[in-house]
Amino acid sequence: MPSIKTALDVSFHAHGVDIQQTHAVELAIKRGIIARICNIKDDPLPYQDNTFDVVFCTEVVEHTFNPIHIIREVNRVLKKGGIFIFSVPNVAAWQKRLLLLVGRNIYYAYDTTKK
Q: In the chain, where are the structural domains located?
């Protein structure tokens, strides 16, 4: 029976971009991720064409006025046959509806005013 490889079984280099310097960027760098600052809303991704086998983009696209720009940039940096994995929030999920029903904010899972 052939074995299934996981991310732990293969060597890979993780890269990340954020629109501004944040604690997340600093933490990523400390953990060995090559993190860069990039205005992904307007600027090209800071990578050569055909760089990545996989691009993972979670809950970013919905924050832009021009999501096609991000999709084109991902397509540019993906190798032929590469995989683009992305997500957007589902405000219609039953968990979100339940929060709305009890008067809770569905966009923030925690109170950002508490220290």
A: 15-101
